[in-house]
Structure to design on (409 residues):
């Protein structure tokens, strides 16, 4: 077995929303794919995605052989775990999705979601790159609840079966992925042993599908949700990641997003797909300045002077959050500590009594909060456990989060 560990991260209690597990797997890429595929099938009820036509499977296999041989090897292991022949052209063995219900191809997510912040390395106490992010999503079965449909019997809430997956491939970079609902490439935060960090946020101005499938269908190239793993497999720095992105085809299927990438040297950028030209573009952190990311393209709206008109009373509005982040940052005193970057994301924590007033999605909550020190490199994570109740005189809800748990190299 390539799986060295598969344990609860903390003692689960009745009524806790999140029940994440820590999984460590090592071996060849094919062995890792086989054991994760076996686990996905036996414990997570994972059914492989189906391609629209064999031509997509054939082209994708050729693409992986040229551009991402590590994933080609993983997929061989997944096919073996599912008893599929090596030349199968029906199923997509590059993803192991679970807990997705009622996909609606071509639909629109229609909600603000996540936020992230990078402190300037030039002003940190230890000369370290500190990053924090809120993973905000609807605390319900997805996509059924969001689409107003009754979820199937026994459906799991979004990211309630979270995963911290540490992979130790022979001959490759070790990496740690924090996420859920995908076992081969868990997303939404990830770091590798070289100190490269990747995360992503919703970007309604982007290019691509939403509420679609994690794989199969008409997928070609590398979906944004798999780009995490691709970059951590192949890159050590932001500049290497930029070149890797520009030399590949990136598509979006589950949600349109933009990607925050940072490294231990302090470089940080936001990768976006321009809605008009469909060009791959980057918004870099400026020296001595922080970098904030919410749910609009940083290349189109780089600072408050470029924002459209909006109402600050809508606290989860993408531009409101940018202003709150800037005001909170201005109140901090350098040299900055790791705790300071968490103060930023705590200022825009998502838990509202009236979601519509806040411009949040229904039952949207900060399901995961991470804080990363890339000088180590190490990622610290806490998970949403449930609501306590409304906070009088505000539109906020007090909620329960787990303690921070740290994972590193």
């Amino acid at each position: 077995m390539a799986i060295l560990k598969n344990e609860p991260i903390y003692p689960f209690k009745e009524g806790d929303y999140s029940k994440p597990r820590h999984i460590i797997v090592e071996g060849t890429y094919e062995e890792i794919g086989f054991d994760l595929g076996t686990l996905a099938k036996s414990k997570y009820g994972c059914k492989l995605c189906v391609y629209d036509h064999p031509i997509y499977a054939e082209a994708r296999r050729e693409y992986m052989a040229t551009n991402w041989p590590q994933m080609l090897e993983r997929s061989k292991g997944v096919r073996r775990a599912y008893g599929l022949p090596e030349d199968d052209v029906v199923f997509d063995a590059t993803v192991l999705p679970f807990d997705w219900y009622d996909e609606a191809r071509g639909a629109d997510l229609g909600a603000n979601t996540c936020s992230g912040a990078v402190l300037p390395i030039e002003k940190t106490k230890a000369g370290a790159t500190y990053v924090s992010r809120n993973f905000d999503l609807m605390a319900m079965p997805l996509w059924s609840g969001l689409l107003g449909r009754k979820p199937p019997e026994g459906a799991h809430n979004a990211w309630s079966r979270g995963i911290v997956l540490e992979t130790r491939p022979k001959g490759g970079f070790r990496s740690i992925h924090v996420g859920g609902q995908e076992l081969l490439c868990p997303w939404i935060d990830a770091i590798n042993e070289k100190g490269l960090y990747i995360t992503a946020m919703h970007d309604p101005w982007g290019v691509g599908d939403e509420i679609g499938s994690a794989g199969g269908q008409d997928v070609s190239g590398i979906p944004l949700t798999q780009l995490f793993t691709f970059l951590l497999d192949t890159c050590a720095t932001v500049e290497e990641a930029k070149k890797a992105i520009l030399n590949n085809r990136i598509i979006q299927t589950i949600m349109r997003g933009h990607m925050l990438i940072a490294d231990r040297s302090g470089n940080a950028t936001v990768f976006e797909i321009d809605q008009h030209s469909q060009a791959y573009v980057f918004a870099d952190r400026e020296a001595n300045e922080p970098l904030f990311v919410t749910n609009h393209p940083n290349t189109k709206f780089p600072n408050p002077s470029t924002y459209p008109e909006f109402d600050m009373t809508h606290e989860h509005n993408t531009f409101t959050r940018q202003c709150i982040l800037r005001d909170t940052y201005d109140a901090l005193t350098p040299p900055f500590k790791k705790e300071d970057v968490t103060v930023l994301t705590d200022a825009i924590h998502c838990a509202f009594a009236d979601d519509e007033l806040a411009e949040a999605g229904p039952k949207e909550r900060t399901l995961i909060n991470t804080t990363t020190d890339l000088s180590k490199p190490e990622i610290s994570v806490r998970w949403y456990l449930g609501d306590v109740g409304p906070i009088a005189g505000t539109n906020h809800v007090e909620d329960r989060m787990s303690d921070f748990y740290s994972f590193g190299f």
Q: What stands out?
A: Residues 92 and 307 are 41 Å apart (CA to CA).
